Structure formats: C-alpha cells, structure tokens
Amino acid sequence: MKAEQTFTIKETAVQTGISEDTIRYYEKIALLPRADRKDNGHRVYRQEDIDTILLLSCLKKTGMPLQEMQPFLAVSADADPADYPELVEHLRNHRENIVSQISSLQQVVDFIDMKLEQGKYRRDCSDKSEDKSKSKNISPVEMSYFSGSAKMNN
User: Fold this and answer.
1) Domains in the chain, start-ordered, CATH in brackets?
2) Which of 7, 49, 127, 140 could staple 11 via S-S, CB 3.0–4.6 A?
3) What residues does the HTH merR-type domain cover (predicted)?
4) What does the buried/exposed string (b/e) look like for 23-40 if buried means 16 or more CB atoms within 10 Å of the residue's CB?
5) How do residues 95-119 score in pLDDT, each as one tens digit?
C-alpha cells in the first residue's frame, strides 16, 4: 500500500500561493482543520488540505467574507448542488454582486480610457493651453460617476 503524500506548510504555501501565516490563521479560525503533526511538531498537509485552501483562495478573490465560507467547506466537491439549495442561492446572490462590481469597474475603465483619449493631461497641470470653446459635453454615464459622491456629500 502506497503512503499518502504529505506536504510541509512551506510546500503548501508555495502550491497554493497563500502565505504560511494565512494558513495558520485559517486553522486558528477553523476554516481549515488543525493540521496533523510530525513527531517533531511540524505541520503536515495532504492534497485534500491543499484543495480546501485553493477553494478558500477562490472564494476570497470573489470578496466573500471568511465567515461566509464555512458552509461551503462542509460540502464535498462531488456533491449534488440540488442537495444544498441554500448554498446555491447564496452563491447565486454572491455571483450577482460580482457581476455588478464588474460592470461598475468596466464603467470606471471606460471613463479612464475616455480621459486618456482626450489627452488633457499636462505636465504643468495648468489651464493655460486649454481651449474653453472645445469643452466636451458630459454624457449621463460619465455624470453618474460623480452623482453618487455628490449625493453622499450633501
């Protein structure tokens, strides 16, 4: 019988792109089970642990708070989503939020691109060379970038 491959915390950190300190923290807050230990006290991780850390990393990249990740860890990778309707609904809502964030960020990118294309950035930051007669009308979309902050300041 072949022994299961194990990894040190350093090897696990390299494979997952998550720092050793973060892995220890995930254990401390019970997102990860306590790692087994060698006789010398060093932590030992298995492929299953690495897969869990990668799942946590993926969920974290979506902006999901750590405390909301716990229920997803209890579900095995080959489970039928229909058996977990509340998790599916939570993931759908989270996905909608991400899509909304992507849309907002795309508007920001579009606005930056427009500003770059206008070429109004000068090294001296003065208005001397600006031709006031050529000012561009601001579209409703561009205006929406400022309306949110203006409402907050009122």
Assistant:
1) 1-70 (1.10.1660.10), 75-121+145-154 (no CATH)
2) 7
3) 6-75
4) beebbeeebbeebeeeee
5) 999 999 999 999 999 999 888 888 7
